[in-house]
Design a protein that fits this description.
Elements lengths: L5 H14 L7 H23 L4 H12 L2 H8 L12 H10 L6 H25 L7 H23 L11 H25 L8 H21 L6 H6 L10 H4 L1 H28 L2 H4 L1 H19 L5
Amino acid sequence: MPDNTPAAGNDIHRLLDDAFAGIALTPEVQDLKEEVRANLLARVAELEASGTPANEAARTAIEELGDVQEFLDSSVDGRTSAPLGKGWSAMSAEAARHRVRPKPAFVVRIVIASAVVVGALKVAAFSVLGALPLPIGVVLTLVGLAASGAAWIVGDSLTQETTTNHPVPAKRAAGYWLATFLFVIGAGFGGLVALGALPVWAIVFASIGVIAAIILFAFLGATQTNRHKAWVKRAQHPGAGYPGNRFEEEPETAARFGIYTMVIWVTSFVVFLVLSFTIGWSWSWLAFIGGFLVMMLTLARMLFGPRKS
């Protein structure tokens, strides 16, 4: 824990002392100060667990906290426009107060990546359908380009700070990047096999890519720690009137859902392969429809089923 890391702990404690200087430490203010301290230390621990050096982790956590004085003004001295206990309306007011605008460079990158994905997939589709004949090597390159663009969108988005969430550490975002890349590559190869552009044996590579992506997504989702900022966590406290996320309130439920999702989709792909080599491609895609329906029913059951007492 950061408490045992002098560099990280000292930076955080000094920031809190400076921020609360001149403010009467009433019991309420002291509680808020300790809450902020706990949130910062937890964030540092998460960053250190991802491989970030202690000093850098402390600086990152402090930067993510933003304007401390503004935070205190809205939380301590009674100048909030609405208390968090008012539910959705208060949540909206807090979201507007703490709004983080997307960085222009990030928006440009996402627009370019989206254009690459759409353009590559359209050209590949025109080629497979005969409107724009291209060598199969070029088509595969276009699929890879689309997969890279989609993966970039996911990874880059997760590393950005938002109004409600801290950014995902770079290593974990890279994991989501890889999972997205594998999924799109696998799905693209599967589509080319179904359309006759690739031989039937290529479905093995498509299945490996998609199954590996599902396993990686399930692992990342099951091990994802809380990213919510302090004001969001305050809003989600019991009695605040804001409906919390069960997967965040019960990590073991989120872990089970990740495992169930992996099993459902692996099973769907096995059924897909069996149907493809027995009754043909015309019906094998129904395995995916069935897998999706089962996953949605599982999600509904786990989100809205009986909760732990």
